[in-house]
From TrEMBL, chain A:
One of its GO terms (biological process) is amino acid metabolic process. This is Cysteine desulfurase. InterPro entries: Aminotrans_V_dom, Aminotrans_V_PyrdxlP_BS, Cys_deSase_NifS_bac/arc, Cysteine_dSase, PyrdxlP-dep_Trfase, PyrdxlP-dep_Trfase_major, PyrdxlP-dep_Trfase_small. Catalyzes the removal of elemental sulfur atoms from cysteine to produce alanine. Seems to participate in the biosynthesis of the nitrogenase metalloclusters by providing the inorganic sulfur required for the Fe-S core formation. It catalyses: (sulfur carrier)-H + L-cysteine = (sulfur carrier)-SH + L-alanine. Belongs to the class-V pyridoxal-phosphate-dependent aminotransferase family. NifS/IscS subfamily.
From TrEMBL, chain B:
Gene3D superfamilies: 3.90.1010.10, BFD-like [2Fe-2S]-binding domain, Fe-S cluster assembly (FSCA). Its cofactor is [2Fe-2S] cluster; Fe cation. This is Nitrogen fixation protein NifU. May be involved in the formation or repair of [Fe-S] clusters present in iron-sulfur proteins. Keywords: 2Fe-2S, Iron, Iron-sulfur, Metal-binding, Nitrogen fixation. The keyword Protein transport does not apply. [2Fe-2S] cluster binds at residues 136, 138, 171, 174. GO terms for molecular function: 2 iron, 2 sulfur cluster binding; iron ion binding. Belongs to the NifU family. It comes from Desulfoplanes formicivorans. Residues 211-277 form the NIF system FeS cluster assembly NifU C-terminal domain. Fe cation binds at residues 35, 61, 105. One of its GO terms (biological process) is iron-sulfur cluster assembly. Residues 134-183 form the BFD-like [2Fe-2S]-binding domain.
Amino acid sequence: MNKVIYMDNNATTRVAPQVIREMLPVLETWYGNPSSMHGFGGAVGKRLDQARKQVADLLQADPGEIVFTSGGTESDNTAILAALASQPHKRHIVTTRVEHPAVLSLVKDLEERGYTVTWLGVDRKGHLNPDAVRKAVRKDTAIVSVMAANNETGVLFPIDKIAAITREKDVLLHTDAVQIMGKLPFSVQDIPVDFLSLSSHKIHGPKGVGALYVRKGVRFKPFIIGGHQEHGRRAGTENIPGIVGLGKACQLAARHLDEETIRVGKLRDRLEEGLLSSIDHSQLNGDQNNRLPNTTSIAFEFVEGEAILLLMNELGICASSGSACTSGSLEPSHVLRAMGIPFTYAHGSIRFSLSRYTTDQEVDTVIRELPPIIARLRELSPFC
Amino acid sequence: MWDYTDKVKEHFLHPKNAGAMEDADAVGEVGSLACGDALKLYLKVDENERIVEASFQTFGCASAIASSSALTELIKGKTLEEAKAISNKDIADFLGGLPRQKMHCSVMGREALDAAIDNYKGISRPKEELEGEILCHCFGVTEEKIRQAIMENNLTTVEDVTSFTKAGGGCGECLEDIGELLDKVRAEMKKRPPVEKQPAGLSNVQRMQLVMKTLEDEIRPSLKQDGGNIELVDIIAKKVLVRLQGTCSHCPASKATLKGFVEAKLREQVEPDIQVEEVVS
Ligand code: FES
């Protein structure tokens, strides 16, 4: 394959070289178990502590509030199940229709098992109205789970306003912050959520590791049982190399936050304008202003997403499509559907998600190469 | 991400016979923008009802485009009668296979062909009347179409039905109905095993499966009525070794049963030169 132009950073990211450098010693030399009594294991425990602090710093949290997990999915599952387990008399859940499957599928499953769920919708621009949360919360609401930013459109949710509501009503709030981390600042001091999920491989860390923030004082029940690790909040010998990598990735993320918002945002805007202006019958999915700086979801009418992806792939350009065609289900993504994007557009939706490694030249290449691809497919299409 | 064969990729990247045909004798159109894929097939037919030219326009994923290209290649030079015999499986086979979730692309090709042939013959079919009730509203899939897909491709799960017809891939509200229909059609198929004569040599596995199926569905039930039973011991080339049990084993007529009934049935259902032998333990 020719050189890869990677614009699928909401799916996963390149591991930062500094992160790899940080991880190597714990793979090669410091392989001890932090739970051991000897100093060799203890030395590893120091690295674990350091990583915990690095993650906490990114969130302005206390290190004691960080629980390491196997990733965003486990963090999401843990938060929701912990909230239910610690308040067995409360059997109502509030969430949105556009969550990541880690929340969506779990809550659907809980609904089948007898919990009551209020599913909040979004408007055409992908916005969630915080008043809807206020209306939905009841006496027996165990938890409100709302993502901070949507993975497909990048649209931001008003977590600050929602947190004010859940505080006032004394209901637990979980946010899936996997996509916002490292792209925009998020402080648990300013936004008092009770649980927050984050994932390492979305912020240039290794895969298979993540963290769950649990606000001090919130009652908690572990999801994975069988050991005292993480102060009894998550059993199993710690994934030390992963955790060390996540820690470093968080430190770098904090350092790059400004650049990520400004430089990447400009690149994204240029890409978006370049494509929308040169390709007819194309439109932006979601709100143009209120979203992550690195994400754009563009719909091309009369063509199908997978075909676009495959032709881009021939040129080494990686993005993702707004339809779940490849996963066997043929409906357009649940997010675009919830927004009421017409099927005719949704089927041809492509998401480009940039990172701090994206270059000007890469953006130029995509702006140059995509219009002929769309034209070629439209030539084949019976609707043009 | 894509487990497409090279042939699929080839036909997607360089489709054969793409584009509209100005002076087509027949046009067949299926699918829609809303469904996520659509195919318009154009045919030029000579006075002997032979397809001399075929072209297509397709909106859809890579395998939909490749399937359309394959279809036009398959039907060129064939008479309408011959073309009619082409199944969605033939299209998929031509491409070296399609991922299971993409089989509906080949089904779409077959349907477009049907539509074009009807169009040529001047049959404009009132959809509902011909195809029955719509079962999946998201994709406008009729009961009849699902029934056909189940039988032709021997589908066994609801997921399969979605892969082949798209029905159920949307809101999912029709999934229960699909399940019911699937059970019904499978029950019917069991009663009436397709008289699939496969003259051109069965593979060992195919033979074995067919022998077991025939034993299970046809032979054992009627032996059991007489208080007997039959056990399959082995299959060596075309020799089927069995053991008769129950009343059959010491019935003086067992030889006749073996040759006259068991062997005859297997010859009829599996292969004309099957031999049945009894193993005496
Ligand atoms: S009715 Fe069949 S998927 Fe919606």
